[in-house]
Write a structure and sequence with these properties.
Order of helices and strands: HHHHHHHH
Largest sheet: none
Distance between the termini: 59 Å
Shape: globular
Number of domains: 1
Low-confidence stretches: none
Radius of gyration: 17 Å
Number of strands: 0
Oligomer: single chain
Structural class: mainly alpha
Strand content: under 5%
Helix content: over 70%
Number of helices: 8
Length: about 160
């Protein structure tokens, strides 16, 4: 049972992190949704860029074990940083900047995704840390840009 839970967390839990955005959208919090999606997109692009610039083998390749049955996992993709963790943390931190309780819950889920990916040998722990840093930076960068644009618009009125 615990293996199934770990595999579920590594493969599918990331998709559940996006569900609260539907709730926020219908509550009229569209700026929060747009900023969150911008953070997620930036985190994904940055993670892919770092992966391309600094290719590193995945743990199952290094240790010579069978690849885990992880969603969309290909042997030739790099291990560092964890794109799943970068996306999850970017989403969670973006939400946390506006809605603390929701954001903390989502951050917990994002960290569970990261831990599960280590337990399935899809990533090393430092890949997860790299994803955390990228996600956090992207969320704060998008938030700063949004605040600066909002302040600029208020000055013009």
């Amino acid at each position: 049972m615990s293996d199934l839970l770990i595999l579920f967390s590594a493969k599918y839990l990331i998709f559940f992190l996006f569900l609260p955005l539907i709730y926020f959208w219908f509550r009229g919090e569209r700026k929060l949704v747009f900023c969150t999606l911008a953070s997620v997109l930036l985190a994904e692009v940055l993670a892919l860029l770092v992966e391309a610039l600094f290719p590193t083998p995945r743990p199952f390749v290094v240790f010579g074990i069978a690849p885990p049955p992880v969603f969309f996992l290909r042997v030739q993709t790099g291990s560092f940083p964890s794109g799943h963790t970068a996306v999850g943390v970017a989403l969670a931190v973006s939400v946390m900047l506006k809605r603390k309780i929701w954001g903390r819950f989502l951050l917990l889920l994002a960290l569970i995704v990261g831990v599960a990916r280590v337990l399935t040998s899809a990533h090393f722990w430092w890949d997860i840390l790299g994803g955390i840093v990228i996600g956090w930076l992207c969320a704060h960068l998008v938030n700063r840009i949004h605040q600066a644009k909002s302040a600029k618009l208020q000055c013009k009125v």
